[in-house]
């Protein structure tokens, strides 16, 4: 099989972060709105599902073509090599979306795509009936500006579902978003990390996994593991590579607190499920009493707002507490994602950097207050001969 055209989907505003992550994994990328395109082999489907921390899904790009009419959509889909992927007993539901296209009816477009795939498979398998009781292949048709993009989803439940979080607090941040915000900060595993509104502990667990090079998909399964077109050996090789890459011998300085005792229970359970319960310190504590320890650390947090903290006065009070806290931490950096328009005013100074992001459907800013970087360790002098 020739090189596959693959797509890593990205939340709006984080395409560059996903692209950088793919580059670090060794792939050349092209960035578009909401997705990053790259090419790879069968095993790269496995590797990317296991390793991508900030993407939502890994898709196979089956085809892309103009589709102003249903006839064009039908013929374009029918021409694609579905028999290379979907077996005779495969289940193949179709999902869809349309924006700025003449084919505005998504249900009708989904029906046309389904019909076209069936017709192609009828020709190949020489049968008129497909039981659809085998492995699952989710096909998606995306219509944008009268161009149809046809993809096959290899991921199943989105990649933020790592498998370690069985319970959640109210309005938790997604694991993929937490990983992206960590990557946008200047934190690394040698620096202390503190979250004064840690909720279910997502920032801290993701940070530990990053510091120890733990592939985020190791604790979950994917529907494409059951696809005949992907040999079991490919998944086995990718998982063995991921297990061998773990580096769990470096000390971590990860601390989280929250005013809600139930949230701390959930965070501790999630850390235990991730195999990290001994590496993260959690405590029940209001943000006003948080006292981060160490030098050159980072505070990264998703403070309560909206449904989580409906009183604007409470939002103002909490943000002022953050500003006061940082006055006593001259070597620390502070990062917060918030929709509060007056965040900088309440914090007491303008952020060094801001980035517009969407936390779910809520438009937010990622406020970044940059402290000094840790001093570099002096180079060891070698004895001259």
UniProtKB/TrEMBL annotation:
Domain of life of the organism encoding this protein: Bacteria
Keyword Methyltransferase recorded: yes
Keyword list, A-Z: Methyltransferase, RNA-binding, Transferase
PROSITE patterns: N6_MTASE, THUMP
Domain THUMP stretches: 44-154
Annotated InterPro entries: DNA_methylase_N6_adenine_CS, RlmKL-like_Mtase, RlmL_1st, SAM-dependent_MTases_sf, THUMP_dom
Tagged with keyword RNA-binding: yes
GO MF term list: RNA binding; rRNA (guanine-N2-)-methyltransferase activity; rRNA (guanine-N7-)-methyltransferase activity
Protein name from the UniProt record: Class I SAM-dependent RNA methyltransferase
Classification of source organism: Bacteria, Bacillati, Bacillota, Bacilli, Bacillales
């Amino acid at each position: 099989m020739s090189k596959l055209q693959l797509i890593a989907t990205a939340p709006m505003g984080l395409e560059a972060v996903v692209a950088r992550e793919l580059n670090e994994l060794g792939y050349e990328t092209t960035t578009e709105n909401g997705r990053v395109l790259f090419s790879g082999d069968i095993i790269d489907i496995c590797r990317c599902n296991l390793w991508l921390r900030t993407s939502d899904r890994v898709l196979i790009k089956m085809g892309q073509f103009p589709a102003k009419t249903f006839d064009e959509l039908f013929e374009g889909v029918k021409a694609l090599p579905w028999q290379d992927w979907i077996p005779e007993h495969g289940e193949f539901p179709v999902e869809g979306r349309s924006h700025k296209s003449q084919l505005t009816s998504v249900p009708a477009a989904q029906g046309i795509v389904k019909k076209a795939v069936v017709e192609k498979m009828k020709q190949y398998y020489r049968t008129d009936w497909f039981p659809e009781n085998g492995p699952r292949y989710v096909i998606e048709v995306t219509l944008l500006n009268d161009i149809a993009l046809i993809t096959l989803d290899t991921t199943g439940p989105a990649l933020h579902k790592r498998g370690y979080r069985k319970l959640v607090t109210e309005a938790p941040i997604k694991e993929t978003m937490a990983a992206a915000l960590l990557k946008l900060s200047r934190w690394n595993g040698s620096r202390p990390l503190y979250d004064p509104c840690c909720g279910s502990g997502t920032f801290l667990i993701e940070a530990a996994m990053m510091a120890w090079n733990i592939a985020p998909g190791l604790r979950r399964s994917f529907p494409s593991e059951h696809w005949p077109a992907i040999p079991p050996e490919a998944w086995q090789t990718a998982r063995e590579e991921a297990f061998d890459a773990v580096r769990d011998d470096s000390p971590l300085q990860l601390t989280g607190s929250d005013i809600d005792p139930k949230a701390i229970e959930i965070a501790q359970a999630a850390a235990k499920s991730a195999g990290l319960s001994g590496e993260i310190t959690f405590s029940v504590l209001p943000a006003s009493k948080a006292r981060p320890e160490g030098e050159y650390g980072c505070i990264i947090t998703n403070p309560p707002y909206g449904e989580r903290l409906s009183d604007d006065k409470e939002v103002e009070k909490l943000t002022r507490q953050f500003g006061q806290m940082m006055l006593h931490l001259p070597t620390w950096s502070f990062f917060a994602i918030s929709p509060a328009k007056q965040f900088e005013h309440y914090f007491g100074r303008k952020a060094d950097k801001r980035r517009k992001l969407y936390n779910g459907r809520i438009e937010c800013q990622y406020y970044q207050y940059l402290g000094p970087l840790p001093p570099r360790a002096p180079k060891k002098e070698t004895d001259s001969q």
